[in-house]
Design goal:
about 500 residues, mainly beta, 6-stranded antiparallel sheet, 6-stranded mixed sheet, globular, binds fe (ii) ion, carotenoid dioxygenase activity, metal ion binding, Beta-carotene oxygenase 1, beta-carotene 15,15'-dioxygenase activity, metal-binding
Length: about 500
């Protein structure tokens, strides 16, 4: 796996035209922006953990049935002061103004040394860094999740951990408005209008929970305070001890996972207090409200073995033999009652029965984001089993409990991203985009485009570059609406007449 995980990749700022086989849907016009660790040495220093690698952003521009690829490092990779403890990298959209052609991508670079919260505004057209933002200037958090939620207007909801006040370690939910609010001075950054939405005290002052994402419904926020915890004292001294961030995390399997629900209307935690079995969750899938309950789906592990396996030393050995997860990521569903006796609930936490297990062996989940916080049916994810390295792409139907998959020999897919067709009627009307790395020297890396409904391959755009394995991304559509509308109707007709499905698994 050295070929996939261990090597540094280079920036490639001139677009490289892809060779397209198949047919890219005419309506699919825009930029796929993706991010992942791509540089693992700085000078003589080498990172030990894949997640510590420096962000390398790359993009596929798709226009008129063709595609071009670019790749750019984050500024942090060029600034040694910012490199020592860098961590997972993600992208999320930010909307400047309401005009679609002003969309910029943002790169969330979550630092682990309690020193930097670097957030870079990137041009999606050139990958040029436009602005660097330090979260801490606007909200008192030391760490923030890599998966903020956002609404159609571009308002961002995120949460982070604050340890700035001694003895008051807490989790802070905060909101960044899309634009400068009415009545405020024009020309100022909307970051300055970031507001604290709600704070939740940590159950442990010196060892708050690690969390990578959280869930939202129309009216609530779901936060899991899990027994996978950060040791603040270890983190504070990690740099001088030459230790990495992962070594400051510990899973306490004897403890519970506490479920916090915050009412977005009152900005207060609800009275209902629940806990469940110990688990490790990186990714919430989705959540919604139904019949007096909050239903939320997560990818859960029974331990933290995933972290151990992403040490480069483990990945670069004979990984098939040596990188075995001791718990497989599982799609689990929880249904939390909102209305229980307040007196009881305020006295103690209520244990929640074991949740439903839907499907075993998937990670990096995505949904049709127009269904975020709402009842939904489909999960798109990378397929893994006992190894943390994805080997397939999965579409899981929660309703029928059936799945479709895409896989190919010597191909290593990343997170599958769903892009809806303009005017989509069904939840799965659209395409799946995934950047595929190959270990076959005869096969170039490529952007895979699947029909999201049937999971058949529509096209692949192969590029003659040394592409890195990425983690997350987003698609920013061009807004030439007239051309798109016309193309959409043609595509829908094509699909109706040619809807071959991949076999269920
Ligand atoms: Fe993530």
């Amino acid at each position: 796996m050295e070929i996939i995980y261990g090597r540094n990749r280079k920036e490639q700022l001139e677009p490289v035209r892809a060779k397209v086989t198949g047919k890219i849907p005419a309506w699919l016009q825009g930029t796929l922006l993706r991010n992942g660790p791509g540089m693992h040495t700085v000078g003589e220093s080498r990172y030990n953990h894949w997640f510590d690698g420096l962000a390398l952003l790359h993009s596929f521009t798709i226009r008129d049935g063709e595609s071009a690829h670019e790749c750019a490092a984050c500024a942090a990779a060029k600034d040694p002061k910012l490199t020592s403890f860098s961590y997972l990298t993600h992208t999320c959209p930010r909307f400047h103004g309401k005009l679609p052609d002003q969309h910029h991508g943002s790169v969330e670079k979550t630092s682990s040394n309690l020193r930097d919260q670097l957030h870079q505004e990137k041009s999606t057209k050139t990958l040029e860094t436009l602005e660097k933002v330090d979260y801490r200037k606007y909200v008192a958090v030391n760490l923030a999740t890599s998966h903020p939620h956002y609404d159609e207007a571009g308002n961002v909801l995120n949460m982070g951990t604050s340890i700035v006040e001694k003895g008051k370690t807490k989790y802070v939910i905060f909101k960044i408005p899309a634009t400068v609010p009415e009545g405020k001075k024009k020309g100022k950054s909307s970051w300055k209008h970031t507001e604290v939405f709600c704070s939740i005290p940590s159950r442990s002052l010196l060892s708050p929970s690690y969390y990578h994402s959280f869930g939202v419904t129309e009216n609530y926020v779901i936060f899991l305070e899990q027994p996978f915890r950060l040791d603040i004292l270890k983190m504070a001294t990690a740099y001088i001890r030459g230790m990495n961030w992962a070594s400051c995390l510990a899973f306490h399997r004897e403890e519970k996972t506490y479920i916090h629900i915050v009412d977005q209307r009152t900005r207060q935690p609800v009275q209902t207090k629940l806990y469940t079995d110990p688990m490790v969750v990186f990714h919430h899938v989705n959540a919604y409200e139904e019949d007096g309950c909050i239903v939320f789906d997560v990818i859960a592990y029974e331990d933290n073995s995933l972290y151990q396996l992403f040490y480069l030393a483990n990945l670069n050995r004979d990984f098939q033999e040596n990188t075995k997860l001791t718990s497989v990521p599982t799609l689990r569903r929880f249904a939390v009652p909102l209305h229980v006796d307040k007196v009881m609930a305020s006295k103690e936490w209520w244990g929640l029965h074991p949740p439903s297990h839907f499907l075993v062996g998937l990670e990096l989940p995505r949904v049709n984001y127009t269904h975020n916080g709402k009842r939904y049916r489909y999960v798109f994810a990378a397929g893994v089993q006992w190894s943390p390295v994805p080997t397939k792409i999965i579409k899981y139907d929660i309703l029928t409990k059936s799945s479709l998959k895409w896989t190919e020999t010597d191909c290593w897919p990343a997170e599958p991203l769903f892009v809806p067709v303009p005017g989509a009627k069904d939840e799965d009307d659209g395409v799946i985009l995934s950047a595929i790395v190959s270990t076959d020297p005869q096969k170039l890396p490529f952007l895979l485009i699947l029909d999201a409904k049937s999971f058949t391959e529509l096209a692949r755009a192969s590029i003659d570059v040394d592409m890195h394995m990425d983690l997350h991304g987003l698609f920013i559509p061009d807004m030439d609406s007239e051309a798109k509308k016309q193309a959409t109707s043609e595509e829908q007709r094509d699909r109706a007449s040619d809807c071959r499905g991949a076999p269920p698994t």
